[in-house]
Amino acid sequence: MVRRRVLTWVARGAAVVGACALALAPVLAHGTWVATLALLALALVFALVSISRRDPVAILTVLIACLLLIPGDQVLVGPLGGFGNPAQLLALGVLVLWAAGRALGLLRARPGHPLRWTMPLFLATTLTAYAAADVHTLTGEQVASTTRWLLISLSLIGLVLLTTDGIDSVDRLEDLLVRFTLLAGVAALIGIVEYLLPGWRWATAFQVPGFVGAAIEETSRGDFTRVMAAATHPIEYSVVMGALTPIALHLAIHARSAKARRWCKVSFAALVFVTPLSVSRSGLVSLAVGMAFYFVALGLRGRVNLAVLGVLGLSVFQVVVPGLISTFVYFFTAGDQEASISGRTDDYARIPGYLEGNWVFGRGLGTFLPDQYFWLDNQYILTTLNNGLVGAAALIVVIVAGICVARGARHRSGDLRVRGLGQALAGGIAALGASLALFDGLSFRQLSFTLFLLIGCAGALWAIVRDGPRRFPDGRLREPPAPAAVPVADVEESIP
Hints:
67% helix; 2% strand; disordered C terminus
């Protein structure tokens, strides 16, 4: 007990130091200062994990911290090249841990779980597309891309399986999502700092010994410089921040502790504010879809309050960031006159020619490279090109299954906290699923990992609720049907 108290105070001290480090990072963003501050922030995460339970939640927390705080272009120095990003390596480790846990009997597979059928389907179509690549003559870049996409797909499957099988209580699932929300809030604050300090970029300032990364160029749209924090593209950053907003709102209302609710409110405000700063239509669509899903879970008073806050937020945003709302209005109403939209639609006419003879199994996993062909801002079409119609169908099935198990957990439970959590997870998954129709989202690590992590969380919630007693929405237990009465004559005949 004494040792745990000492470790707790050490962790709190590290938290204070880490918070000060993050606050001073934009001011002291030169030379070794940034390396020192970044290392302190990462040390904070590992200090908190060290005094927590050694379970999948702790492992996934470290992965999420690396995913949201270490720039996506940063990789470890060594022979791994572009695959040496810490989040990517941890994701592969997650798959290994899940396999070891199942082999040693440390993880219990939930029989009859919908995701236990959909993930093998996703794996089968991925392997089929990987094999289909051998039918074509590939360049060296395509061969490397095929292997890379196979490892990425295995990582995504591992995230779903470990999250689904490794989290066995609603409290631990909430702990993971609270940490996810708070880390997303930190990422949102970094994006806000990038907006307030033009010319400063977290990806450029992140100079940590042992890491190497490509130079990041600033991108602008209209009169605004687009923020992206640790993401590899502003669209990815905006979509992920928007998709996590309904989960942040749910935890701001229903988290177990008052402290968690208070900090989740801060994260929610930061996420809502930073999503439009990337000047991305996809980000606004993600935010709108996610919040529309969670709107259903609110009562009449909650819906009115959310609508009022939305109107007030738009008014405040117009004052704080003048001109941004009118920029979005133009982007949404310009139609084919806007260059980014016309460029996308013009490319669609070329798709059937590339799929000739490859409609079922595709051209090969990861072989449709933008450098050799063209950019395609629609993940479902891109998956059809690479994995065929069966691969695109499998991806849709996985996303729909994630939404359905989240909604299923909501309908099975009478606990308002669990019901709201199920709806929030469904909103996050639907938001990311909708965004895949607007750009090639699975090509970006932050978005793809977030999507499959949320699907795994939905699967864990469904299994936890299914294992418990079923309740009506008003909290009453659903009594199992009484056994059918056996006629007395049949009973007498069965007695020897």
